[in-house]
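Section 3.1: Structural characterization of target chains.
Under the original work plan, the team committed to producing a structural model for every single-chain target entering the pipeline before any wet-lab resources were allocated. The record below documents one such target. The sequence was received from the expression subgroup and is listed exactly as submitted; it comprises 245 residues.
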Amino acid sequence: MRIPRIFSTRRLKTGGEVLLDEQARRHLLKALRLKKGAPVVLFDGSGCDFDARLTRLDKDTCAAATREIIHREEPPQLKIHLAIGISRGERMDYAIQKAVELGAWSIQPLFTERTVVRLAGERLASRQSHWDGVVRHACEQSGRSLLPAVEHATPLAAWLAAFQGEGILLDHRTNSGLSDLPRPGSDISLLVGPEGGLTAAERNASLKQGFRAVRLGPRVLRTETAPLAAISALQTIWGDFDVRA
């Protein structure tokens, strides 16, 4: 039986007992039907996996005792930062989930001119929390020990104004591909529009800020497909898809 990996919202250390949150309690008790003494792997997003045993698990409480560190995840040589126009619920969730599984280092949700999802106040806070949960579960499933950050959703114009570094803009209108780009440094930002893509003004603003426009073949990809194809290509060319690296 595969030992479940569980995210801890509290910092972990060897030889201690940690209380797990309600989300972990429900999953371990209701979905997996585990009992006191069952082995689990815990991680807190800082890069280490801990061997642990459940010490308390009932309708009110979930706790585990940590033993030793069994795995350390080193930061990748290429940190891919996905900046993506906010799209409707399931599409956005899918893009975030799979980007995490593919190794994205951070996620930046963006409000663009063609963003149709209206989020503000409590609704935005709820969606941000939901996205954090998507990342958490993707890390639990994929074996990642370093938790990617989901940055606070912001307008594209404001994000571009503060942007520094190297950036790639996905644009099916250009004739350039990833093979035309020089090898990036340690960080690369990947900008993808929402449903309907970015407007001409937004694309031009991105280019003025130093982004390089590239296309991924002759097809027009959906907003939830394009970033995954691009991250996979970046990981294959310059990232960690080479198992010998």
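The radius of gyration is 20 Å.
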